[in-house]
Each structure stands twice: as C-alpha cells, then as structure tokens.
Amino acid sequence: MELMIYLDGQWVPKSEAKISVFDHGLLYGDGVFEGIRAYKGLVFKLKEHITRLSESAHTLMLEIPMTAKEIETAIVETLRRNKLLDAYIRIVVTRGPGDLGLDPAKCKKATVFIITDKIVLYPESLYKKGLDIITVPTVRNLPEAVNPSIKSLNYLNNILAKIEAKNSGCMEALMLNHQGYVAECTGDNVFMVRAEGAEGKPLLLTPPTYLGALKGITRDAIIELSRELAISFEERILTRHDLYNGDEVFLTGTAAEIIPVVKIDGRKIGPGVPGPVTARLRKAFNALTARDGVRYRL
Ligand code: PXG
C-alpha cells in the first residue's frame, strides 16, 4: 500500500501529494514545521509540538487554517490510515501559493501537509559507541535575525553546518553562536555532565536557549527526567573548553532521541565511551516514551 499523506484537508497517496511551484514554502522557505514521534501507539508530547508549531507560525504571522484539536485529529488519522504504531511524523505549514514576489500577503491560504513515516538518523551502533562531532565555522543564526526558536522551513544555517561536518568526516556538527558560546547541533540540543562540588556529584548542564538554540521538546523531557532521577541540573553558558572537559556529552532531539558524544574536535570526552548518566537518562527517556503520550488505536 502506498503511503497516504494528509494534504490540505484530504488524504492522498504519496505519488499524488503535490504542491504548487509557486508555494512560498518552496520559493522562500516561508513556513514552519514539527518533527514528532509515535511510540507503540502513543504520540509523544503531541500538545507541546502543536504549541511550538503555533508559536513559530504566530511569530511569522502565518495563520494555520486549523485549530490545535484539528491538527491533533489529522495527525492521528494519518497514522491510522498508514497503520503505523511507531512512526516519525512531519507536519509542515507553508505560507501557501503566491506570486514571485516575497510579499506573504499575496499568499491567500497556508498549505498544510502531514507525512507519517520512519526515520533513522544514526545507525544503532553509534548509540552504543557514541558520536565523534566537530565544531564548524558556520555560526548558529543570530536570535536577532532568524531566531533559532522558530522552527522554520529555513534550515540552510543547519544544512551548511551539516555539510561542513561531513566534509570533515563527522556525522554531526557542533554549532557556536556569534560570541563563540555553544549553541546546539544541526538538529539536536547539547548536554554535558561533569562532577562538581566537594562530593563530586554529577551535574547536568545545557546552554540556555537564548544563546541561539531551539527549545527542544526532548531537551525539556530530559530536564524533567533529571529531576525525577535526582540528578542536579543547571542551564549554563558553555564554551567548547567546557565540553572538552566534561565527563559526558550527549545530544537530544526527536529524531536522534538521546545519543552519546565521545569525541569533539579530536578531544576525547571523559574516558571516550558513553557514560553512566547518559545511559540512565536514555533508559528513563525510553520508559517515558513508552508510557506518556496521546494514545490512538489502529
Ligand atoms: N535543534 C534543532 C535545530 C532542531 O531542528 C532540535 C534542536 C531538537 O528539538 P526536539 O524538539 O526535537 O527535541 C531540533 C529538532 C531531522 C529532524 O530530520 C530534526 C529535528 C527533529 C526531527 C527531525 O533531522 N530537529
């Protein structure tokens, strides 16, 4: 059976799911999106993703022609039609078809589509071995320009960083902000763990998102889980030096979930193997995705 795609209120086979070449999502990257996951019939953090989609659209003054409830129903129905219990969900809202000028006022109606499919970002072996990442020259977008908190269709900043990492033989890029502080990776937030204080208890750290990062929903989930597991947590401005000298580093994102990092710019992180705090958080995250979410049946 061909994959069914939700497109502007209807479900159409993948081969027929087409949008106009005049759509400003394509002409200008004018639009917003979300990447969501379903685990065994539970859509993880669906409300949070819809809220972020609405907030991104609000900032762009892009009117989504659906209510939050309608979006939720359309997502679940797309999963059902494709008989998917475990899936990666992509919802995209573009400015819609207009003319060749960039004025969004010429676009009369937003285009909405939903794809439900599978995604494999990194091979399973890398979750056991850990990633080797590299800092790239392209800095993360300035919040004063295109704020990284907007999950827009304009991903060239991240794509340039990804190209630079791959040119250097790494699968992922560490992006700094314009001041040289750690921002995030191309599709993931960054965390580190280090022993601090007299007792040397592990402290979990991640940079504040105002430095130039997406407010990741996986990031929020990890912060929530650190509380449950009584792991101390702090948002802190971080440099590359801080990361190099961490005991553990890991990345979080809907697609990648929790993936350990064992090398940055040639520097081994801790002993150079995935660490125990990362392992505990990964386990807790897997348990969370197995119990928490919007339930649906096929
Ligand atoms: N930073 C950026 C720039 C992202 O794009 C994250 C952080 C993590 O956010 P969440 O809310 O997912 O924890 C993202 C999300 C892909 C893909 O196709 C990328 C993301 C999500 C889904 C798919 O590479 N990035």
Gist of the model:
The chain is of the alpha+beta class.
Shape verdict: globular
- Report the total helices: 8
Chain-averaged pLDDT:
97
pLDDT under 50 segments (min length 5)?
none
CATH class wording of the largest domain: Alpha Beta
Total strands? 16
Instruction: Kindly report the CATH topology of the largest domain.
Output: D-amino Acid Aminotransferase, Chain A, domain 2
What compounds are bound to the protein?
3-[O-phosphonopyridoxyl]--amino-benzoic acid
Salient structural properties:
298 residues, alpha+beta, D-amino Acid Aminotransferase, Chain A, domain 1, D-amino Acid Aminotransferase, Chain A, domain 2, nine-stranded mixed sheet, 16 strands, 28% strand, globular
Q: Could you explain the architecture of this structure?
A:
The chain is an alpha+beta fold. It has two domains: 4-117, D-amino Acid Aminotransferase, Chain A, domain 1 (2-Layer Sandwich), CATH 3.30.470; 124-288, D-amino Acid Aminotransferase, subunit A, domain 2 (D-amino Acid Aminotransferase, Chain A, domain 2, Alpha-Beta Barrel). The chain contains eight helices and 16 strands. It has helices at residues 24-28, 46-59, 68-81, 124-129, 156-167, 217-228, 240-244, 276-291, and strands spanning 4-7, 10-13, 31-39, 42-43, 87-94, 111-117, 131-135, 172-176, 182-185, 189-196, 201-206, 232-235, 248-253, 257-264, 267-268, 294-295. The strands form two sheets. Strands 7, 8, 9, 10, 11, 12, 13, 14 and 15 form a nine-stranded mixed β-sheet that branches. A seven-stranded antiparallel β-sheet has the order 2-1-6-5-3-4-16. A hairpin with a 2-residue loop joins strand 14 (257-264) and strand 15. The two termini are 16 Å apart. The mean pLDDT is 97. The structure holds 3-[O-phosphonopyridoxyl]--amino-benzoic acid (PXG). 3-[O-phosphonopyridoxyl]--amino-benzoic acid binds at residues 35, 121, 158, 184, 187-189, 214, 216-219, 252-255.
